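Below: protein 1.
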Amino acid sequence: MDTGTLIAGRYRIKHLIGRGGMGVVWLAHDENLGRDVALKTMNVDPGLTEEQRARDAERFRREAQAVARLDHAGLATVYDLGEENGTRFLVMQYVIGPPLDDRIVEEGPLSIEETASIGVQIASVLGSVHARDVVHRDLKGSNVVIRTDGVVKVLDFGVAAFLDPDTTGLTTTGERPGSLECMAPEQVQGKPVDPRTDLYALGCLLYAMLTGEPVFTHESELMLPGMILEQPPVPPGRLRAGIPSELEDLVLQLLAKDPDERPAHAGEVWRRLAVWLPERRTPEQALLPWAEVDPLRPFTHPMGPEARPVRAWATSGRSGRAGRTGAASRRNSRPSR
């Protein structure tokens, strides 16, 4: 697909955003409503049989249905689903912000407060989708985006599993949907998944946020499945001092090989993480401009108004003391590493 291509008479392709196992994501402009959107097209492998193509097409359709029937602030809204010249496409909300894995690479280990602030938001999303019999199955750092206002969005339900017994399974025997970096042991073995599979992946993300390192790593990816199945994770406290013992216990419980040894549900994870959320700050601070992504903001200033962009403040005639105070506030409130 080329830049400038018009899809369905309204979505103008701007540029490529990324590629995944199920499709390609483009930034497009909805010319009817005058807004940017994320447009995902389904990959079609020329070597597939007609049966395999039909199964992949059905899985792609189910992605749209899975997310469209969910309603949570931490999910990207589905706008449209269609087909253009044999290419199936899904149109969703375009979420602006860095992926979690990029933030970890740039910042290194995150503060305890930031880890909790991101973790409870992911747990809230998982609690909502699990209650509707959906399991993400591919939760990883690149599928978690932190908006500039600190709100976390969980993306890409392309390999979501449906737990409704009346729903026909779309995964054939031997398939292992998902990415190895946060894949649970039962996925590696090709066993049935349930909500605790996503909780294992959340444990992987918490581990990476706290230590700056993945749970398992090897120069050969072929070694990872065996490590996931057999090797116990190094306790995060050995890689970083100062991690509360209760938080380390939670992470290691999430990473249990046996799903029965993990927390029972996402609500329990939310409750145990919420202990380390940041304290609420003063309303005056909520009105100060900021330039950096701040995952603490939804908790330090819950339901706070969106601050005007820094440049707008600088030209509004109110910038002098407010701008300097804002910068000082950011320095003073920045969590210690």
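Below: protein 2.
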Amino acid sequence: MKVLAAMSGGVDSAVAAARAAQAGHDVTGIHLALSRNPASYRSGARGCCTIEDSNDARRAADIIGIPFYVWDLSERFHEDVVEDFMDEYAAGRTPNPCLRCNEKIKFAAVLDRALALGFGAVATGHYAQLRTGEDGLIEMHRAIDHGKDQSYVLGVLDQHQLAHSLFPLGDTHKSAVRAEAAERGLLVADKPDSHDICFVADGDNAGWLREKLGDRAPNHGGAIVDDATGEELGRHTGTYGFTIGQRKGLRIGTPAPDGKPRFVLDIEPVSGTVTVGARERLAVDRLSGIKPRWCGTVPRRLEGTVQLRAHGGEHRAVVTTADDAVDIELLDPAFGIAPGQAAVIYDGTRVVGSATVSATVSATVAATQATT
């Protein structure tokens, strides 16, 4: 089969491409140029947007012995991922750009072009496993290495996309991947993993948003108020600098009466009000989801688990669906969940699908209402 291997310049995608070639596929490597000016997104060997990364990917392709090309998807990436990231934060939501990139770029724009060019699949270095279920559908499962599992950020893939995807590393631990890279003579064997958001060069999301949003933000400042008393505790320069559950960087001079730290409980982008309070007020036990993406058959009711952050734990949950709405009852309350985050739904190790969190119900508020 003709396989297009997406090569970021890191060790994982290089080994994935090598394995695909060793399995007998006719492999072509590509590197995605996601910025016309790579230094504006990322400097140093940290991600997927630098000239260094492109050169690392090209050298790996040469060692593997496969053709290599660079595809310029900078305009599509900026529109579908970067602009979406800014718009969501400006609206007081907390997006995950990695999911959006997988949905819109790697397994949409890239896959569409690959199929049009006669390729049968796109291979990436993501840590996830694909299996054929008893019903004949392609199932996506967590990787063997749970510490590196990336099924959460792949929870937006549908059956068509899964049927044309290859994840050669899903059955391997990361330490073994690095060892294999060294054995194959790949110079990226010891290259550090990428972290943070690839287009935020220094990892300072708030500073990056402040610079990029400018006058596009609905407000340039507002009050930070106490949830219990309504007292104004301070001022801020933009709601985009906050996210639900945030504790650090609030710059509140007045301590809480009990001496405990305060957390961001709510963000109102129109008025500019940021509400803070005790950690227990962050507990939620019910989520509403919109824009669902299903990996296979749409469940009407499922008792499974939900993951709410890329590196977060699982919460036991009862999931019900109706049309394009998803209701999630958390049997294990979660803390600090913000609208805009992705809720990825699992049945055991199998990824069922995902939805974007649109609203949350506080466990403490629900408990108070139930007793009054």
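Confidence is low (pLDDT under 50) at residues 40-47, 366-372.
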